[in-house]
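F.,

This is the one I mentioned.
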């Protein structure tokens, strides 16, 4: 069974598990299904603004498909969330990606 199907199977018993949803979104990115990955990342962040890991991946996806202005906004939201939860490592990654895109 491939990873996408395995993760979907796990999600049947834990449909709101952000870790599983994030992992599934990453698998969709690997499979080239940006639309499904984007939907999942956005759903995670709509439900839990403090799930910092999804900001970077969503913004990178948006950047890759040419939606740079939206990517910038997600990097900025992610930096704010990372500061709020005290995640300096994620803040630095988001800031570096943001600066690479803006400057």
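My design for it:
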């Amino acid at each position: 069974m491939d990873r996408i199907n395995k993760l979907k199977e796990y999600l049947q018993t834990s449909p709101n598990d952000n870790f599983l949803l994030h992992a599934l979104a990453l698998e969709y990115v690997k499979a080239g299904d940006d639309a499904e990955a984007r939907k999942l990342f956005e759903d995670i962040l709509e439900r839990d603004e403090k799930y910092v890991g999804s900001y970077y991946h969503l913004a990178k996806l948006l950047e890759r498909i040419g939606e740079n202005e939206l990517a910038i906004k997600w990097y900025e939201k992610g930096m704010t969330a990372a500061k709020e939860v005290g995640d300096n490592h994620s803040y630095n990654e988001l800031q570096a990606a943001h600066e690479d895109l803006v400057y």
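The chain has one domain: 3-102.

Talk soon.
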